[in-house]
## 1
Amino acid sequence: MTMQLSEFELIKTYFSPLSEQTEGAFNLTDDAAVLEVPVEQSLVVTTDTLVEGIHFLSEDGPKDIAAKLLRVSLSDLAAMGAMPAYYSLAIAVTPFMSVEWFKEFSQNLAADQAEFGITLIGGDTVSTSGPLTLSLTAMGFVKTGTALRRSGACIGDDIWVSGSIGDSALGLKVAKGEFDSLAAENKDYLLSRYRRPLPRTLLGQELINNVHSVIDVSDGLVADLGHICKTSDVGAKILMGTIPLSVAGKEAIAIKPRSIDLILSGGDDYELLFTADSTFQKLSKIISERTNVSLTKIGTIIKTKSVCVLDLNGKRYPVSKAGYTHF
Amino acid sequence: MTMQLSEFELIKTYFSPLSEQTEGAFNLTDDAAVLEVPVEQSLVVTTDTLVEGIHFLSEDGPKDIAAKLLRVSLSDLAAMGAMPAYYSLAIAVTPFMSVEWFKEFSQNLAADQAEFGITLIGGDTVSTSGPLTLSLTAMGFVKTGTALRRSGACIGDDIWVSGSIGDSALGLKVAKGEFDSLAAENKDYLLSRYRRPLPRTLLGQELINNVHSVIDVSDGLVADLGHICKTSDVGAKILMGTIPLSVAGKEAIAIKPRSIDLILSGGDDYELLFTADSTFQKLSKIISERTNVSLTKIGTIIKTKSVCVLDLNGKRYPVSKAGYTHF
């Protein structure tokens, strides 16, 4: 079934209900939304764009596209320590999209809104000859003066990372038909990590005032550590053997040992990578329990301005790709 | 010359300088921007998307695309009475775009930033197989509780419109090679109205507390009046002979009298259309002088829930198209 609803009907049927909890969104019937920012809070704003064929596969369903779109931005908010609040959504719709697509897409947004405490407040729906292009601007709040930054890493800081690294890049390979011999439950796990990122929203808020620098791992572990180092004017040394891997990730690497490069450079993990002084060690256990997210120390901030990865023998491992770049 | 800069270089060279005046944009080097909203002010947010071949012509230059993109959103802020503050920008770049394109594009944004008092605070730059797609989310401030709305029109209100109507739709025809016999300066004027909308930023702020409902004319005069009527649960009657036309618009209609339909339904005027009680008549002269924008009374809000256009003989004029819809 191809599109049978006008732009106005589409908005009214599938998007207005997502804005109901925010009065100032006016059911998406006005020129703009009018929003309140609590006193002594700053507004945190981030924009992410997904293009069919580049950021998601043409065969990916509306459910996974919705999850990825919103959660990628939520991860950026998490990296600043912000509490999610509002988002606006721009969709360039192709001629091949069905009403059913919008139904599933909006149902998934509704579920994620409830889970992460964010509501739709506006946007734009236009047509395109293709590819499907979605752009989302997410807004959150953080107590003024406390936002987490990339730029505060100090020489001697420990480098920490949440969860496990590399699952999403391995999941993309699985989606493309690789790793055929992997156990079915491990395939499913990696696919789910690729398709439905888990923004570390609570963890970000717990890190406020406790760490020196934070970034979310989107371009790749080494590349994102490079962003911290560049803005902080320092370098980093990480031990490959300490990078946290999931059970599925370990099995995948056992099958194809060269996949270790995906751990270092694959990207799209949406874990938080951060640096802190040694007093964080003790705190890490409490925060890990409170947020139900594992935290692992993987290296040290150093003076020499490069990111150096040491293998199990203490030798420098050559990083084959500095991370995902968009051109 | 095709693209020779990476995403990071592109941002650093052409976009970071546009964010310099806002400290919390961190030169676009962090995961998100951290912004302040003044006390007792609400945040006004609007998103607009432009797609090559649909919202602008493939032959349109970066200068005009930049102007249209930013000014369309500024017009939405104006319709709420908001003072412009920040914007984020998402661009899906095609393989055919040059560094020169970005240079011109960013230069024009810089000029408009200075003119309208708004700064870039973030965004996303991604690649697409085409068409060029740009999405902008603009943010402004309005004193809490005073935002202008579409929904306040009252029976008996006068209907007012700023500037002149229809120029942009006529300008698009000129751009497509029509109206060949039109005087050169009139062609230029209509083209400029199509390519470089003039958001009524100051006028919007002056209308606060003085009018009952406001919208910007983007879908078309009749369609946008319909939006006011629908959200206000009223109807409207306008007199065709009173709709303000530019000198160029008048000449175009003299050449092709059927073009009058473009006045009613053409859209993209970005004038403010608003309703107010009779006390506004006197105030209109003062506001018009203060903002240097003409204001014209074109009709009345009525009880019957439709938009009715009366021709010069007082007969109902059949509106051929209710306004621009996106599908």
## 2
Amino acid sequence: MLCEGCERMKKIIKSRTQKAGLPPGTLVHLGERREDSSRINIFKYSEENLEEKEIKIGEIPEKLPGEGEVLWVNIDGLHEVEIIERIGEIFSLHPLVLEDILSTDQRPKVEDYGEFLFLVLPMFYFSTDEDTIIAEQVSLILGNNFIISFQEQQGDVFSELRRRLRTKKGLLRRRGADYLFYGLLDSIVDAYFLILEKVGEDIEAIDDLLLEKTDSGLLREIHRVKREMIFLRRSVWPLREAIAKLERRETTLISESTLIYLRDVYDHVIQIIEAVETSRDLISGIMDIYLSTVSNRMNEVMKVLTIIATIFIPLTFVAGIYGMNFVFMPELEWSWGYPLVLLVMGLIALGMILFFRRKRWF
Amino acid sequence: MLCEGCERMKKIIKSRTQKAGLPPGTLVHLGERREDSSRINIFKYSEENLEEKEIKIGEIPEKLPGEGEVLWVNIDGLHEVEIIERIGEIFSLHPLVLEDILSTDQRPKVEDYGEFLFLVLPMFYFSTDEDTIIAEQVSLILGNNFIISFQEQQGDVFSELRRRLRTKKGLLRRRGADYLFYGLLDSIVDAYFLILEKVGEDIEAIDDLLLEKTDSGLLREIHRVKREMIFLRRSVWPLREAIAKLERRETTLISESTLIYLRDVYDHVIQIIEAVETSRDLISGIMDIYLSTVSNRMNEVMKVLTIIATIFIPLTFVAGIYGMNFVFMPELEWSWGYPLVLLVMGLIALGMILFFRRKRWF
Amino acid sequence: MLCEGCERMKKIIKSRTQKAGLPPGTLVHLGERREDSSRINIFKYSEENLEEKEIKIGEIPEKLPGEGEVLWVNIDGLHEVEIIERIGEIFSLHPLVLEDILSTDQRPKVEDYGEFLFLVLPMFYFSTDEDTIIAEQVSLILGNNFIISFQEQQGDVFSELRRRLRTKKGLLRRRGADYLFYGLLDSIVDAYFLILEKVGEDIEAIDDLLLEKTDSGLLREIHRVKREMIFLRRSVWPLREAIAKLERRETTLISESTLIYLRDVYDHVIQIIEAVETSRDLISGIMDIYLSTVSNRMNEVMKVLTIIATIFIPLTFVAGIYGMNFVFMPELEWSWGYPLVLLVMGLIALGMILFFRRKRWF
Amino acid sequence: MLCEGCERMKKIIKSRTQKAGLPPGTLVHLGERREDSSRINIFKYSEENLEEKEIKIGEIPEKLPGEGEVLWVNIDGLHEVEIIERIGEIFSLHPLVLEDILSTDQRPKVEDYGEFLFLVLPMFYFSTDEDTIIAEQVSLILGNNFIISFQEQQGDVFSELRRRLRTKKGLLRRRGADYLFYGLLDSIVDAYFLILEKVGEDIEAIDDLLLEKTDSGLLREIHRVKREMIFLRRSVWPLREAIAKLERRETTLISESTLIYLRDVYDHVIQIIEAVETSRDLISGIMDIYLSTVSNRMNEVMKVLTIIATIFIPLTFVAGIYGMNFVFMPELEWSWGYPLVLLVMGLIALGMILFFRRKRWF
Amino acid sequence: MLCEGCERMKKIIKSRTQKAGLPPGTLVHLGERREDSSRINIFKYSEENLEEKEIKIGEIPEKLPGEGEVLWVNIDGLHEVEIIERIGEIFSLHPLVLEDILSTDQRPKVEDYGEFLFLVLPMFYFSTDEDTIIAEQVSLILGNNFIISFQEQQGDVFSELRRRLRTKKGLLRRRGADYLFYGLLDSIVDAYFLILEKVGEDIEAIDDLLLEKTDSGLLREIHRVKREMIFLRRSVWPLREAIAKLERRETTLISESTLIYLRDVYDHVIQIIEAVETSRDLISGIMDIYLSTVSNRMNEVMKVLTIIATIFIPLTFVAGIYGMNFVFMPELEWSWGYPLVLLVMGLIALGMILFFRRKRWF
């Protein structure tokens, strides 16, 4: 397998080619089937009251909540298409929205349908069960006084938010659906820092390895992190645009006072983007050091070869001369011939070494 | 042949230089002659009725369809220029539009002529006959209640759409020409994912080969895929602008409700662009790994050479010394001389090996 | 000589430093003197009549043509400054315009002076006499019902246009000066594809050579083409802006119906830019392949050295051992000593070869 | 440790993951605890009077200063959250502002809350105690006639400003809070040049080292400086936007006459950005020289090896020939054989040397 | 010394850190003291009259010139701060303007103070005394009917302009201060081509050297030119913005008819920018050729080594075999043994040479 990034890309492409030619709004769940059965949870609250329960498909409230009340319907699991269809009918969602919810390969985007806002973005969270970071797609529908959230499977980053909903304290119960919408968005964005943390650890691990070994495995590791970063960047950049669009939006669904909070989320997204950019710079610096280290080792290898060879090749030549079998070679008969030749050899070696010293080769 | 990209480029340039100086609107078919004879098919439908037939040039309906009716004229094959001229007369198209239809080297663009919209874009589809991906240019004319489509040859991605037209169910029969226009556009864009799939497979194949061989053939293969990507990118980027222009368009030819569907097509085009960008990143990562692998192999070769040479060169020198023919060389007459020298040689070799070990060369 | 690009740059710089400090509007011909004497040609036509003749400086018509008539004055050769001055007086052109016409180093630009439009751009054409591509600067003045064109020397890309002017058929005679302006512009732009064709041929020639030799001459050739591309790009990019400016222009000099034709020219310029960009991508791909081929050859050279050296160095060492002159070397006296040693050597060589095979070195 | 940049990044990410899920406006000090106890200083001045003192939390003036008076409250140390809360109450600051003040990982930004402006930016100063450059975050609140500044610890760049406040001369006492705001901003920005100076020194030191050694330690040093630059750039770029925003601001808090001074600060920020960009160019040039020097040394090593080896290998071969023990080798018995062979060897060596000379190898 | 660019950068940084904390408008001359004493020259002219003289500080005209008259005050030398102060008083300039005039490290900018325009930009000119190109900063103040110009030292590019002022002919005397302003700007910009000429010569010199030697000195030379280009680019880019700003300006200080001339200056600045960009492309191409030449030489060195070594190593081995002292070696006693071995060696050598030929190594 090449990388997550391209696996994901392949998934997107596959699902698209499967659907090619079908009429728009055809509801087919494009993505892995992650759960056995879908679950529907609702929170219905006003400043005073709170109702929280898990319901079946038939129990989805058909009436919109009254003034001062907020309804949050959360669906875990997307493969039971009839649930999505039912909700589409009750809240009169556009067929294309339903289609987008079911295609778990969306790039983050926000769409304003007048009656409601549609936001889709990826969510990352740490699953203690599987001891790994899980990515799934969340779709949020913000209506006048309701929110519907669609997740691919159980488990999310909203537990702290639910706790705050259950207590009467805090702004959450006193403000409208738009503030809950902000709360959900903020929780998802805050969890992105998790991945940055993991990437940061990977970079440090690579940096440590760099001093020890320089095989092509390390290079592949560097590229793996690079690809993760590309993937993360592709997720966060459109999110930035989407939230900026929300801020500019003249929609009446988001109140003036909540917009200030959205600006805060926007700041966090910018921080994530900058962290990703910084990581990219770090990784490309590590890449340079890797390549330079490889070439430095090569240099050292060559130097050793050159030093050994250039010292001994002339010596061997001298020895070769006196190994010749000429009948008439006067030196051979001198009694000091042998020690003299050894001396000459020693001097040649010494000269070579001094030459290398002067060249600062060692 | 260098590459498809540059073949195409050459084609464009050639055809332009042929036409240089001719008055604008001169109808000459610029491109390969792909079919023996052109074919004209018409679909004429309202919610209730559907008429579908293949016609001759003389049978092209001269009257525009009535209220509530939609006419789709499809022409396969562009070299019978009289057909294009005839249609230009009947539907009063601008000469430059006819010229653009005949030049099968257009970059994707949309043009608003008030009475009608003109969209030209490439279409890719898998031909089961030839077992290969075929690229041709499609020109679409969207009028008030008619659509004219021009293709270079038979075979297209509209078969599913035709099936949906023939059945009474679905929105297609109930909506106007703009919705059919969307349908055609959507079918073409969806088919782009086909090429991405092929490119993805090529990238994976290269990635697998990378572990085995690193000859310059592989590099050329990498560049071939890179060029395909450049080519695809050049096709899709202007398409993005063209569809964005459609969305902004104040034309009355596209209804409000169809615009939402165009936004969906726009999203798909963005997804394709992102997939292309991701592929480019992957390919450039593969390029880095390729170059690094090549240099790592070189390193290994050099190391082997250095190890062998630096171990044996000093040993050979020692052997050379005792091969000298000096009359007075006391060591030669020692009875332990020979084993001693062998021992010394062994120690030198061992020392060298330990030195390389410490340097972590193997 | 380094390159055309920098020759041209030097020319621009030189001419500027010559003129430094002179008052603006000083008419000095900056550029090579390309012709011995200037020539003036006029076309005066209405739908019915056509007058075409070569005139002298004194014969330049002082009266603007009447309603329904179009006057095209073409000047070949810029060094007879008095002609330019005279025309400037008659048509009341701004001194800076005259100065720009005489400086044959302008980047393409369009300027609106209310009474007239001023467009300057380079023209490329194939001279059959000299069998080479010639570049010169063309300045066009578009007035209400006249056009003045200034060229550096005789020979241009307007012969087809002149032929069309002489025949009564076609739009050219029926439309105004703005349509002739479009015609001139279109002819010039269409001729750009000529150079692209030449560049394309150069690229292919380089690509073919790449498989055979990799000397630094080829690299210089690659850079020459690269520089031509830079040069072409520098010419075409500002032209794009200039024509876009024309399209946006609220000038009354260009009629609504001619604007559509300008849009067509704009499309061609975009196509040229894209072809240049594609060529750049191709060239940079060729560069990569060149560098990689060079390094692959190096690799192969090193491998051969390493294989030969590592096989024979140990063998030579073995031979060296039995060349030593020790009195006590039992192996020397064995009758099977010599064949045994040869066998050992053969085994060592075989081992080495198997080792290289396993390493996939050959 | 990899680098400051990524340490900082890690800090940001850590602090965010700690806070994930908490309601917005929860006041937790995110950052190192830098001081034991917080200090509050106030300056209250009009053109005539000046009151300066250190106060306790209970003594914070609850009444806003009168007309013509300016109040500057400076807080050193952020961990005593109750102080921040108290000030938030008195000056009715938005909870998100208080949260941002406490998070010492903000990117520079300006926010307009109508009643007050909020500016956050990093401050760098040279601490004579610790002989090092210290970075801390400063938050400035500009109200109608008050300024509140929050610093992480004692020590800042405002001492010159305080001195000017204490003297009656100068504009500072005569102008309003907005001019003091400008003064603070200007002092902070001017101090950025300090870091540029240090970076400049580092670059020069590296440049000097480059001539002497080329180990990978130097490369790491180059990358360290590169990372510092990335870090600095990330700090200054958003500051540029922030100040540009201030200039455009229609706020009534900043008077027309002070805006001109802000333009001056803006110019300084641009100068810093350009200096950073120039440093980046220098560093990347140094990088190129480094890599080229490494490869040149390699070249030289290879040349020495090649010269020695190619001179002696043929000589050794000649010696080897006459070391063969064939019974019938006529040369061996010639009385001039030995000197002749020596002569031949000398000629071979000379030929080689001349060959290398012609190749300009030394 | 690393480079001019960074020297200049250091100067800017140094001067800033010196001034840190001082109140704005503090007049300190930041820059080298270039002249011993400042000189003041005035030109006072109308269409009819011209008054030109050198004056002392006390003689600066306190009254603005009358209708139809233009006053040009030129100051050479900035260290006599009292002159600047005096002029500031008389013409009521903003303190920040005076400060900017004295800081000779400004990036080019234009500022509109309503009453007057302030333009600062670098000036380059060839000093015949010192036979070198000198760079200094020029500040221009354009008032209703006066111009004040501040230079760092004597010597400028205005001598031609002064000559034109002294003669009655030409537009200069007939037009207002804005036209003189244009004249000054034009002279300065035209002189920029001087440096481009020098850079062009440097590039050509490097290109010639490239064929001869490839030491790291050449690389440093390449980088020196690169840095000069970076420096020049940094000077000219902001100038482009500044002049574009002037063109858009609704100021009444520049008349409609002069704006056309400013457009001409703008065109020249664009030409300079393009020439700089072209030079950058040329330099980076030269860099590529340099690196490739270095690696090609390395290749050639390696090839020679490999050819020599691979030919002689096997031969030496053969010689080594027959140098062994085995008692039983039948070949040694053959009478054709020696010639046969020589023949075998010759064949081996020939085989190797043919092998290299086939590999196209030489």
